[in-house]
Amino acid sequence: MCMGYFYVLQSSKNPEWFYKGSTIDMRRRLQQHNNGEVIATKPYLPFRFVYCETYVNEKAARLRESAIKKNGNMWVPLRRRIIQSLS
After folding, report:
1. Which of 23, 26, 35, 55 is deepest in the core (most CB within 10 A)?
2. What is the arithmetic mean of pLDDT over 9-33?
3. Burial level of 56, CB count in 10 A (0-12/13-18/19+)?
4. Integer distance in angstroms from the first to the last C-alpha of the chain?
5. Would you say 41 and 8 are in contact if contact means Cβ atoms under 8 Å apart?
6. Counting beta carbons within 10 angstroms of the beta carbon of residue 43, is it exposed (0 to 12), middle (13 to 18) or buried (19 or more)?
7. In whole angstroms, what is the distance from residue 36 CA to residue 53 CA?
8. Single pTM value for the model
9. How far apart are CA 57 and CA 33, in angstroms?
């Protein structure tokens, strides 16, 4: 069984811009983002990982990603914590 990861990337070009996603291979996924292979993030290259949650499988990570993207009340406090941790 593969572990799943919910992650947040921060744009180095525009540090106020964050991308939320999920994957089973964080190293490969960051490389895809930074190589311009992901349409949604291509204009904001380059990126760095700033947050990650680990789940028992990919499905659980995707559910977390979906919940965060759909619910601003979940994203706003998480974003605030991420920004504070980077200060």
Report:
1. 23
2. 97
3. exposed
4. 36
5. no
6. exposed
7. 24
8. 0.94
9. 22
Q: Please, are residues 4 and 62 in contact by the beta-carbon 8 Å criterion?
A: yes
Per-chain mean pLDDT for the chain: 96
CATH number at residue 65: 3.40.1440
Count how many domains the chain has.
1
Which residues is 9 bridged to in the sheet? 19, 49
Q: Measure the CA–CA gap between 4 and 62, rounded to whole angstroms.
A: 8
CA distance 56 to 38: 25
Rounded CA gap, 23 and 16, in Å? Answer: 23
- Give the residue from 76, 20, 30 showing the smallest Cα distance to 53: 20
